[in-house]
Amino acid sequence: MTAHAHWHLRRAADIVHNGGIIAYPTEAVYGLGCDPDNYLAVSHLLDIKQRSIDKGLIL
What we know:
The radius of gyration is 13 Å and the shape is globular. It has one domain (3-55). It contains 2 helices and 2 strands, in the order αββα. The protein is α+β, with helices and mostly antiparallel strands. 44% of the residues lie in helices and 14% in strands. It has helices at 3-17, 39-49, and strands at 22-25, 30-33. A two-stranded antiparallel sheet has the order 1-2.
């Protein structure tokens, strides 16, 4: 892993650790992620996605 890639990975981990939301590439689209154990982060993610908690989320 390059130093540049390591920096980005560390930055994403810090954001998630501090309750933030990250965007990350998947095979076809970008996903949004957060700490699933952080109620406020999950609530914010649901607001961003305009998604009801009843529909659930993929972990």
